[in-house]
Q: What sequence folds into this?
């Protein structure tokens, strides 16, 4: 599946004036993946921002995931299974550490990175 992405052109480079077509990714070098240098500078500018925002979002997601899992499982165990409060909290903390941290980090990092991905 090939999608074409045209680069912005100014009046001096107007392809309609001399019968040429605009440069597309389909015309680019397949080995480099760039359309004659159009995409490469954009990626260089976005990578530092992406790394910082993805790491920050992953850390925030991990904290949120821990607390949501810990509190959710603790309350559910108290209400549904009638466990003692200490047992419910212990199970909630266990679930928060082993499930909430990883899931929250995954969702936080992916949500930050998805802003920069090209969706079909």
A:
């Amino acid at each position: 599946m090939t999608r074409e992405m045209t680069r912005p052109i100014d009046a001096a480079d107007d392809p309609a004036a001399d019968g040429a077509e605009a440069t597309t990714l389909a015309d680019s070098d397949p080995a480099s993946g760039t359309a004659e240098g159009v995409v490469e500078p954009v990626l260089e500018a976005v990578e530092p921002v992406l790394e910082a925002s993805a790491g920050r979002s992953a850390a925030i997601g991990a904290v949120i995931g821990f607390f949501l899992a810990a509190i959710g499982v603790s309350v559910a165990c108290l209400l549904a299974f009638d466990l003692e409060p200490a047992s419910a909290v212990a199970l909630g903390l266990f679930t928060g550490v082993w499930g909430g941290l990883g899931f929250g980090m995954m969702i936080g990092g992916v949500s930050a990175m998805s802003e920069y991905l090209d969706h079909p």
User: Anything to note?
Assistant: The radius of gyration is 24 Å. The first helix runs from residue 15 to 18.
